[in-house]
């Protein structure tokens, strides 16, 4: 499935004209859009993530093009549905690069897709900007200089949760992660960190992506006598597990601890999720002036509050635009890379820094709890603890912490 949006709101009169250079050249540039390709998931059980990436692009495109674009050029987003399949993701990404001429790819959903696409970027000479993918390997053993991760990684989320749980009374934990890179990486990272905090991991299991019946896993968790269950499940899988765990009474015995606490899951599961704790890569309830303004604008456009990847994708696009302005180009990938390395950015949640050594963005980490709040039509993530970036970011090109 191929979807295309050409966003050019506000490109009237002189607003699209960059300063400097002959008028004819500026006019030609204004007609030549900056293309950003999204090989993302728009169908199936993980479509909520592609939907979030798309919503963020729609808001960013409307706003940046109303201001005259980037370097006087409008931004065009081109969407391709990968169906959450790595081989399809590579094929769709190649089409975006070779046929559509994009220099920037983003929006990959599953880490397995990102690992496959990232491996091709040095050959294609294009940037893959992650705003979703959690697998630690992407900025560690599988690092390449054409991959940038703006978002919090899985090990970073595990770190935030582990720091919070180190002070909690729970001592016995079970790890349940989907059977692919993100799930296994995050369970391994959590296990190492919780053991270092002198607590116990009493079991681990890895259900396939797309599991519909979690009864056998719920039985194993109950039999382990765990006090908390660390969950690394994407999209619909997490919703199904949480509903079934509530129906079987597991959540009355074992505290759900999620690697990512998502609004989409909260809205789908409802009050049964109240009391769930975990990390949040972007909690829309974070209280900064920049975020409060973003939430208002996002809600006005989409009629919902922004979820994690709405926020992180918007931050990635805003930072990318800042880097392109600094580099003075949207086409020279090598100059964009050089401008992005060791650069700073004021995100919705606070300060970000892009490490040159592995292209992982250092940023704040959050532990949250799902609570009821009369100000909202559904439960929301309440921030329990905020950790500075240097405490939740692993050592360069590793998944290990100081």
Structural class of the secondary structure composition? alpha/beta
Contiguous low-pLDDT stretches (5 residues minimum) are 1-28
From the spread of the alpha carbons, the general shape counts as: globular
End-to-end Cα distance, whole Å, is 45 Å
Helical percent range? Answer: 25-40%
Please indicate the count of domains: 2
The largest sheet, given as strand count, sense and whether it forms a barrel, is:
7 strands, mixed
Instruction: Give the SSE order as H and E letters.
Output: EHEHEHEHEEHEHEHEHEHEHHHEEEEEH
Task: Give the C-alpha Rg.
Answer: 21 Å
Strand order of the largest sheet: 8-7-9-10-11-15-16
The CATH fourth-level homologous superfamily of the largest domain: Response regulator
- The assigned CATH architecture of the largest domain is 3-Layer(aba) Sandwich
Number of strands: 16
